[in-house]
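Running co-folding for tryptophan.
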Amino acid sequence: MARPRVLSGIQPTSDSFHLGNYLGAVRQWVPLQETHDAFYMVVDLHAITVTPTAAELRARTRVAAAQLFACGLDPERSSVFVQSHVREHAELAWMLICMTGMGEAGRMTQFKDKSAKYGEGSASVGLFTYPILQAADILLYQTDQVPVGADQKQHIELTRDLAQRFNTRYGAKTFTLPNPYIVKEVEKITDLQDPTAKMSKSSSSPQGILDVLEEPGTLRKKVMRAVTDTGSEIVADDENKPGVTNLLRILSALTGTTIADLEARYVGAGYGTFKKDVAEAVIETFAPIRERAEKLLANEAELDRMLAVGAAKARAVAQETMEKARDAMGFLPTH
Ligand code: AMP
Ligand code: TRP
């Protein structure tokens, strides 16, 4: 039997991934290569919704790709590519845009969050249609499962609605309906300075974020200064101890120790000892990734070649889906 298909994407909108991206998404992608037919992409078309300069987009796309390989994605075992290299993404997005209601798109909470900082009416139309481009990304590959953090759940629901609508209107078998693949324990890593908010490259302060490519010394400082809660017990309690709980989740995920075992281990220990262990676990995880990413970035030609291999594999699947979708919708054949 064919393996189920998995697909996910990450935006090249900063100079490094952060711990939330890593634990909530990319780390899940690595083992899925062994059990699934895997497609992972750097979503550069999504990144232009927030208007980077050309130099920023170029550099960040390569940095993102290098980090994916450095985290363990293997060009032999999965298709790792850059979204804009497969033109079909933009084409299918347009078809789906024409099938999405304004109200339906307006209900996307990420748009509301992200557009708030631009002021009334100033966010781009691209930011508004962003989730529909994501739906196109997913549907082009007949994706079964989408490994992401909790913040993407609503976009995957929209994707399912659009697939269902297309299939009902134009042809029952055009698109596979995808499911989210979300690991509960790490679905929302929070900001070290504001542990009730998501760790986020767009809204967290630098002190609240742990970047994968950051210096060990800086990582250590940030963890040691993380907001903890009143009292001195190291126990998981989302209501009353969101800061300690976030650090427990991080340490648990990084060391493979259950939260209950960690709670038992730190009975009577102070926050200082606990935070030191969290810092060391983060540094130990990130240091080899950083080293591999730097090596990959030192040879851009090779990195670009690896991405070209991924794009060729992705294109073959995307083109097949597009032929079906064009024909189903009533576009004339090109030959
Ligand atoms: P983005 O950087 O917005 O492209 O996000 C890439 C992936 O990281 C998506 O699957 C997000 O859901 C996930 N992600 C982003 N921030 C967090 C977080 N704080 N906790 C868990 N997952 C996250
Ligand atoms: N919107 C996603 C995010 O911000 C990135 C993304 C784009 C994506 N296309 C995708 C994720 C397709 C999963 C599948 O994180």
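Result summary
The mean pLDDT is 96.
The pocket of adenosine monophosphate (ligand 1) is lined by residues 10-11, 20-21, 24-25, 148-149, 151-152, 187-189, 198-200 (CB under 6 Å).
Job closed.
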